[in-house]
Amino acid sequence: MRTRYRSALLAILACGVLLPAGCARFDDTAAGQTFSPAPVPSPESPPEVQGPGADSGSGPKQARPGQSAAPVPPPQGCKDFDPSVIATCLDTVAAVAGLPGDGSTPSALAGERKSGRVLLATSGKDATDFATLEVQAAGDGGLTGLALSPSYVEDQLVFAYITTATDNRVVRFAKGQSPKPVLTGIPKGASGNRGTIGTDNRGALLVATGDAGNPAAAADPNSLAGKLLRIDTSGKAAAGNPNGSLAVAAGLHAPGGVCASADGGRVWVTDRLADKDALYRIQAGQPLATPAWTWPDKPGVAGCADFVDANGSLSVGTALAGNLQNLPVSPDGAISGKPTISLDGKTGKPPLTYGRLAGMSMINPQLAVAGTVNKDGGTPVSSDDRVVLITPATSGGGNSKD
After folding, report:
1. Distance of CA 196 to CAs 39, 210, 242, 263, 332, Å?
2. In 3D, which of 46, 13, 85 has the Cα closest to residue 315?
3. CA spacing 20 to 30 A to 98: which of 173, 220, 280, 391?
4. Residue ranges for the chain with pLDDT beneath 70
5. Which portions of the sequence form the region Disordered (predicted)?
6. All structural domains of the chain
């Protein structure tokens, strides 16, 4: 791993708390606490994929933004020559969770939506089994979210959002241990079961739930469907929640990703509506009436990553269009312009595409990881599905277009 990745590492999970066991509820109005914007520098260029794993493997190394690079050869079987690919030949990697480390060998947990398998993906190594969760994948459910415990280094706990025979729920587990329920009874339907998990980097877990195929449930304060929940690791309402409720926001339908800035000053959630895709900036206690950005062409917004770097940018993966939407973020935390597109196979040096992107997670403020779901309606290559490293650009040029 190159020196720039050693110096970049900052344990993002050190201040975030993850889910525990039980049923809790969360409200939209923060009691004395709001997700206030944190100043970030003005955007200059969007994130792009580089070669964090360039020191491992035998493939060609990728250039920094603005530099030329040789094209990456196509994969041969499960061998992928792209140094940013850290795991291959998996199945529908809908969920990922970046692991803490020294930055020299990036690694992450990768969850397969349909099988419930969780694997350890490490740059330069073959993926290994970590756990298997019993899930039901019908109706877009299954294993759709992963997040580490905020004290993962000490407790080694992982949290997952899954669909079971009776409900959608949050469970926790450690390697070699059976999963334990944390938050149960989230409505399940014939569709609308996909949900996801992240941390707010202020000591709580964020759980975005689908509407279970019933749009009215998203507005129902008595239902856990279609909500953004903020809970502690025992499944109770997190400290500072408005009125001690579990839900900090209502009105979601098919959320694909939830992410926060490293300091917790910005919280984002992506959602797919009937007429458009949307990105919301969450302000506890305020409605989701006005999205921060919308996509009328409905690219299938999925996971997101808030890069805290000189560019001030938010990246959103898409599971239908199969690209990365890079949105500039102003110093006050607002989306300040239209997205540029990368990982579409047309832009960048070299032009890259990984196809359909799903879950995303930060490893450190300068490095994220994403999973692909090309075996779920896409056009898989021989090494799909994959786990891919994503870094922000630090200079002009790069993998983008207007």
Report:
1. 27, 9, 21, 20, 26
2. 46
3. 280
4. 1-69, 309-311, 393-402
5. 34-77
6. 88-388 (2.120.10.30)
